[in-house]
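Handoff note, outgoing to incoming analyst
You'll be picking up this chain. Sequence as last confirmed:
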Amino acid sequence: MHQASAYLETVNGPKYLAQLCKHFAHKIEVFHSEGHGVCRFPFGTGILDADESGLRMVAEAAGADELKRTQEVIESHLMRFAFREPQQALQWHGADQAAPA
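Most recent structure output, in case you need it:
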């Protein structure tokens, strides 16, 4: 299993988590509770955790290509919802590297 994580520092983490889960739920299986979400794409899984300081995203997939696709889908949708945030690419870190908190 391949895994990567990214973090967006923002006071809107819970809002973005809810928007992403609601959006993805139209097409895929999504589990969502306050501050936590799991999105099961055909090619991988996105795990989202949010609090008042930010949004942590973990992408998991069986292979490297599927992991990259999972990351791209999560990031592209987040950037659309977070258009008021300073725009920058997320820094994804592999399972052997800690993502900044």
